[in-house]
């Protein structure tokens, strides 16, 4: 065993969770100076990366497609925690934060992550195959969830503005949760084989010996390693929520000082949370496992909507101020463009460089128009 691995896990992944908690204790309730702010931001970023790393370890143990599901759920828990934390401290200024973050997550996953994976995979393998019935069904559920949760509030008439009434919000939350639950059932039980990478077969996962240095990527971690990662994952989530609460006032004031729209805060949250997952999707595409990349991208979009909207609906009971969910005209155009292009991309079962470039162009347009609406 090398000196960088302890009990099957890298030393950094063992050190980051407790160190992040130490940073949280040192910064909690204090006015952040420059040095402490840098420390908090570094701890927050490291805790997010460590959380997703430990989620990947657990995911590797349980195998596909459970692996990508666990990773998506871990990322969504972090995202929901950040949204609720910032909304609780932001007042009326944070009324649209949930909408901005969820929509940003959709655009990042369906255009940014998907585009990067397609470009990286195509540059190495020219073209890659994936399962149309799996990716197409995920896109259909995602489109329905976004329409019901983020598009309809713009056109409902029970309440003023792009908001839901209490009954409508409850209906949207329950519908989102049910649809996501059905998708997870189909993905993991009823049609699990649809979501496996092309050319692979379901094989039993064999645990690796704890002292085996050659485990690398092919062998699954032992039960002890997986349980250790599961515990450290929860520690990381606690650190992420606390550090986000600590840094949120500085983040909002920085956006206001720069003269940027408040929607930039939602984009920053989504980018922060989804960055490690982006790396995982690109790595899978480079290994010619594009279906895993699609599972990560579309699964994250589904989890973001299917779990965030119900959580926000419950949180709205004690959160003060309005909850703006409806998309504006600019966002509606970008969403429609994303759905149409994604349908064309996923219709053939093979991906090329051109398709990836188109998705990245849409993602770049989203980022530019967020900063310069």
From TrEMBL:
One term of GO molecular function: sodium:proton antiporter activity
A Pfam cross-reference name: Na_Ca_ex
TM ranges: 12-29, 35-54, 66-89, 101-120, 132-155, 167-186, 225-247, 259-282, 294-318, 324-346
UniProt keyword annotation of Membrane present: yes
Membrane topology designation: Multi-pass membrane protein
InterPro entries hit by this protein: Alkaline_pH_Ca-Antiporter, NaCa_Exmemb
Protein keywords: Membrane, Transmembrane, Transmembrane helix
Chain ranges of the Sodium/calcium exchanger membrane region domain: 34-188, 229-370
Localization, UniProt: Membrane
UniProt keyword Transmembrane helix present: yes
Gene Ontology cellular-component terms listed: plasma membrane
Domain of life: Bacteria
PANTHER family hit by this protein: SODIUM-POTASSIUM/PROTON ANTIPORTER CHAA (PTHR37958), SODIUM-POTASSIUM_PROTON ANTIPORTER CHAA (PTHR37958:SF1)
Name this polypeptide is given: Ca2+:H+ antiporter
Record organism: Kribbella voronezhensis
């Amino acid at each position: 065993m090398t000196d960088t691995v302890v009990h099957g896990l890298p030393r950094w992944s063992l050190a980051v969770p407790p160190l992040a908690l130490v940073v949280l204790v040192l910064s909690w309730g204090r006015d952040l100076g420059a040095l402490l702010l840098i420390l908090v931001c570094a701890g927050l970023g490291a805790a997010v990366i460590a959380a997703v790393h430990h989620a990947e370890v657990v995911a590797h143990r349980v195998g596909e497609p459970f692996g990508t599901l666990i990773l998506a759920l871990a990322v969504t828990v972090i995202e929901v925690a950040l949204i609720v934390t910032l909304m609780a401290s932001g007042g009326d200024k944070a009324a649209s934060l949930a909408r901005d973050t969820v929509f940003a997550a959709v655009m990042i996953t369906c255009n940014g992550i998907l585009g990067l994976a397609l470009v990286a995979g195509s540059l190495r393998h020219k073209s890659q195959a994936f399962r149309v019935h799996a990716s197409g069904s995920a896109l259909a559920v995602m489109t329905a969830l976004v329409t019901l949760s983020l598009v309809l509030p713009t056109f409902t008439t029970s309440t003023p503005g792009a908001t839901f009434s209490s009954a409508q919000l409850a209906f949207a939350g329950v519908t989102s949760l049910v649809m996501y639950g059905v998708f997870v059932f189909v993905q993991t039980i009823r049609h699990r084989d649809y979501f496996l990478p092309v050319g692979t077969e379901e094989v039993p996962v064999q645990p690796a010996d704890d002292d085996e240095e050659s485990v690398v990527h092919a062998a699954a971690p032992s039960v002890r390693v997986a349980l250790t990662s599961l515990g450290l994952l929860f520690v990381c989530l606690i650190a992420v929520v606390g550090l986000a609460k600590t840094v949120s006032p500085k983040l909002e004031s920085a956006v206001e000082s720069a003269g940027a729209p408040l929607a930039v805060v939602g984009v920053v949250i989504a980018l922060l949370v989804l960055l490690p997952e982006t790396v995982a999707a690109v790595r899978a595409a480079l290994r010619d496992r594009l279906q895993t990349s699609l599972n990560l991208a579309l699964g994250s979009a589904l989890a973001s909507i299917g779990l965030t909207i119900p959580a926000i609906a419950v949180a709205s009971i004690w959160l003060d101020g309005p909850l703006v969910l409806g998309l504006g005209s600019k966002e509606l155009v970008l969403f429609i463009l994303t759905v149409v292009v994604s349908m064309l991309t996923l219709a053939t079962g093979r991906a090329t460089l051109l398709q990836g470039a188109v998705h990245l162009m849409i993602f770049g347009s989203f980022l530019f128009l967020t900063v310069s609406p």
